[in-house]
Write a structure and sequence with these properties.
This protein has about 350 residues and is an alpha/beta fold. Helices cover about 30% and strands about 15% of the residues. The strands form two sheets. A seven-stranded parallel sheet has the order 8-7-6-9-10-11-12, with helices on both faces. Bound molecules: 1,4-dihydronicotinamide adenine dinucleotide (NAI).
């Protein structure tokens, strides 16, 4: 179908080739539903407004807060915003809801991949793998750097946030012969039973865990969920892994806990500031493993991500409510567009 005949428009405002680029099937998939597919690399709200003012669906890929209240108010036809990712803290949820715009996320595209990354960081940390590898590459056959290590079997893994990724991580680590504890105020023991975890309160998880892996969302409630008081309650020598969002952990408190040895090692795919500032003490610590917010990245997740974005867009265009609306309170006052 020639482009000009397509009555709808779906815009991805900020794809990043270094992370994910559309796979190639999107334009055809959307064209069959009557929509044009346009992709941009916007860096400012002004650019977003100029390319998406007449879009029916606007997808945002990065975690940069491009869909602010001011921008959303100028997207005249937009009935749905999609975070092409799981966390949707980059969309002004409250403003979208007030404006009658659905906010969707694409939460399932990388569940397995992030869980894999979390267990990878746990094992790499406990077995000192990055440190040993770096020494070998510098010509040091430094077997003493393998110490101290410790056996994983028999230890306790604490999972904060027993949603999709947290549950998948629990299933992965269950095979290590560990006790799995979980803290999540919104999940009950019935669900925890299905993944071999026991629900506990946060204090008990902190006190008992040898590994803590963070998998909750970032919200007002979880901002600095782990701060000075919480680090003080942790078991001496804990390994902390964060593949969720940096600001869930108070980084100053983490640095202090690493320096005094309460936290033995950390594996961080996310940090409070991304990229980390060059003077961050974390960059100097060889018991800290850092990756640049890439837990989700596999070719499989890339394909699943854009497929979900297209499916959600098609639902909106064809008048259905998509499965992944995260602001259901909007449904009784959806924006009307001619
Ligand atoms: P989910 O929505 O399935 O799970 C989040 C869980 O956090 C829910 O079970 C919820 O009840 C729980 N939660 C809410 N408030 C809490 C609190 N105060 N304390 C403890 N738990 C709380 O989300 P999913 O798919 O498991 O993703 C989790 C997070 O992982 C996302 O919000 C996102 O920020 C992050 N993520 C990071 C990626 C990366 O590339 N590093 C990629 C994908 C997701």
């Amino acid at each position: 179908m020639p482009e000009k005949e397509l009555p709808f428009k779906v815009v991805l405002i900020d794809y990043s080739p270094e992370l994910y680029s559309p796979v190639g099937f999107e334009a055809e998939m959307l064209a069959q539903a009557g929509a044009k597919w346009e992709t941009y690399r916007c860096r400012t709200g002004e650019e977003v407004v100029s390319v998406a003012q007449d879009a029916d669906v606007v997808a945002v890929q990065s975690v940069r807060p491009l869909l602010t209240r001011e921008v959303l108010a100028q997207l005249n036809r937009c009935r749905c915003t999609i975070r092409a990712g799981a966390g949707y803290d980059s969309i002004d949820y409250k403003a979208a809801t007030e404006l009658g715009i659905m906010v969707c996320n694409a939460p399932t595209y990388c569940t397995d991949d992030v869980a894999d990354h979390a267990v990878g960081l746990m094992l790499a940390a406990v077995r000192n793998i990055p440190r040993l590898d770096a020494a070998l590459r510098k010509g040091r056959y430094a077997r003493e750097l393998a110490r101290p290590s410790r056996r994983v079997a028999g230890s306790t893994v604490g999972i904060i946030g027993l949603g999709r990724i947290g549950s998948t991580t629990a299933k992965r680590v269950r095979g290590w012969d560990v006790t799995v504890l979980a803290y999540d105020p919104y999940v009950g023991q019935d669900h925890a039973d299905t993944v071999g975890a026991r629900m506990v309160d946060l204090d008990e998880l902190l006190a008992r865990s040898d590994f803590i892996s963070i998998h909750c969302l970032l919200s007002d409630e979880t901002y600095h969920l782990l701060s000075w008081d919480e680090f003080a309650k942790m078991k001496e020598g804990v390994i902390l892994v964060n593949t969720a969002r940096g600001p869930i952990v108070d980084e100053n408190a983490l640095v202090a806990a690493l320096q005094e040895g309460r936290v033995w090692a950390a594996g961080l795919d996310v940090t409070e500031q991304e990229p980390l500032p060059p003077d961050s003490p974390l960059l100097q610590m060889d018991n800290v493993i850092l990756t640049p917010h890439v837990s989700a990245n596999t070719p499989e997740s890339q394909r699943d991500l854009y497929r979900l974005v297209c499916e959600i867009s098609i639902d909106v265009i064809q008048g259905r409510i998509p499965q992944w609306v995260v602001n259901p309170e909007v449904l009784d006052h959806l924006k009307k567009v001619d």
